[in-house]
Write a structure and sequence with these properties.
Chain lengths: ~180, ~100
Amino acid sequence: MIPGTLFYWIAFIFTALTAIFAAVMVITRRNPIHSAMFLILNFLCIAVLYLLLNSQFIAIIQVMVYAGAIMMLVIFVIMLLSVEEEKRTYKIRLSPAKVIGVLLVVILFAQLIYGVAQKVVPGEWGEFTPERIAQIGEIKAVGGLLFTRYLFPFEVASILLLVGIIGAVILSKKER
Amino acid sequence: MLFSVPPMYYLIVSALIFAIGAVGVLIRRNAIIIFMCIEMMLSAVNLSLITASHYLNSLDGVLMVFFVMTVAAAEAAVGLAIFVLLYRGRRTIKVDEINLLKW
């Protein structure tokens, strides 16, 4: 038994339950600001799960990009549009479309679980063991891969970001 | 005797968050909340990629997540600009009332 396993289990169970709780709260709150706050909690919990999976780089990026930048933008837009919360008396109408949709999602979830339980993480084994990553540093390893094997996707991503910036500016420009 | 957490548990958490996000997309009518649910689904998929990457001793999943986050950031910028534009034109972001293209 590796020392720290008990702490690992406690941290995993606590974080996973909090993430699922936050996810449920996101889709049930009436006020969009409350949804946004619970979504930030969900992203932070997922960042802790990344830390447990030994990828510190992605955990930091998750906190900075998702919980920081994207959620700041979302809350900014919610406040800009001053969307009122849905009325308290408004009951969630169970239209047939919603029932069918939820049923389909349940089937999808069952399929995902079946697929996971059938064969856990198939695929080729790579060369980056935790010891090797600790030796050369994770950011160095990621950067090395990013600028060699993944150079073309990296360039495409830069063009995508440029298109995103131009699109956002053009869309939100006032018409003459 | 305790063993380390098997990858299956991480994948189950990821699948659960993905399913909750999909339910949110289907039952909520506020465009911004639908957008937030889509972000949640993207991040659930990221979790399963990181899990596979960790348990296979590979860094390919980490790079994949890096690109997914790039796409999510670009999507956030353009999508929220579209919501602002919609609100300016029609004074609502309820997806039920934006039905000009509906058959």
